[in-house]
Each structure stands twice: as C-alpha cells, then as structure tokens.
C-alpha cells in the first residue's frame, strides 16, 4: 500500500510542478506580447498624431494666402468683409476635414487588441480544462476461488 501512495504523491508533485512552470511561462509570454503590442500601438499613434500636426501648418498658411488672394478678387462683388468671411470659412472647412480624418483613424485604433484576445483565449482554456483528478491506487482483485 505504501508504494501506491508514494507514486501518487510523486506524480502529483510532478504534475503540480509542470502546472506551475506552464502557468509562469504563459504569464511571461502574455507580458512579452503586451509589451511588443504597446510599442507597436505607440508607434502607430505617434504616426497619426504626426499626420495631424502636419496638417496644421498647411491650414494656417492656406488660410493666410487664400484670404489675401481670394478676398482681393471677391472684394469687387461682395466687399472686403464678405470676401474675407467666405475665404476663411472655406479654409477652415478644408483643414477641419483633414484633421477629422486623422482623428477618426486614431479613434478606430484598438489598443492591445492581440494581447486581450490571447488573454481571453487563455482564461477560457484554463476555465474549461478540468482539474486532473487523483485516482486512488487500485489493488489487484483476488480470484473468486470457485464461488
């Protein structure tokens, strides 16, 4: 009897050790994936923010030049105040559309999407896997001796 109990205890400690090693490896891999994904997300967000910042000077310069040129041209028919308002509105709308497009790209960006999916898969797999049951040691059955 002592032999079966000893083997079960050794097997259980080995299984527990493997489970601990596997779990620590899983956590380490999730942290590594999260770090890589955060760096990639930061790079993409930085690129989109740079695009927004790149449109700002064009909006300002375009506003200034168009105000001057179109206002001078339109002042003949609608006066200086009407021509300045019209030119300013057109430039603001154009610049606003460029900034809105870049901002919508930032909003649609899902941060750490791969990491959260992998973490959800791991949690689901761990929740569905039943814990290994410890089987009691069985003794060989004795012959019925003719009964």
From TrEMBL:
What keywords does the record list, in alphabetical order? Membrane, Transmembrane, Transmembrane helix
Q: Which InterPro entries match?
A: Phage_holin_3_6
Q: Which domain of life is it from?
A: Bacteria
Q: Name one Pfam family in it.
A: Phage_holin_3_6
Indicate the transmembrane segments per the record. Answer: 52-78, 84-103
What's the name of the protein? Phage holin family protein
> What organism is this sequence from?
Archangium violaceum Cb vi76
């Amino acid at each position: 009897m002592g032999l079966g109990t000893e083997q079960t205890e050794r097997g259980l400690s080995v299984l527990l050790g493997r489970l601990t090693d596997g779990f620590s490896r899983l956590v380490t891999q999730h942290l590594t994936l999260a770090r890589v994904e955060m760096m990639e997300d930061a790079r993409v967000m930085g690129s989109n923010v740079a695009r927004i910042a790149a449109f700002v000077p064009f909006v300002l310069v375009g506003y200034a030049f168009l105000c001057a040129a179109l206002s001078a041209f339109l002042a003949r028919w609608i006066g200086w105040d009407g021509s300045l308002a019209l030119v300013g509105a057109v430039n603001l709308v154009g610049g606003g559309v460029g900034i809105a497009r870049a901002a919508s790209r930032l909003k649609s960006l899902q941060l750490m999407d791969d990491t959260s999916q992998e973490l959800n898969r791991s949690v689901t797999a761990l929740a569905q896997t039943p814990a290994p049951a410890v089987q009691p040691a069985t003794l060989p059955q004795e012959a019925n001796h003719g009964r």
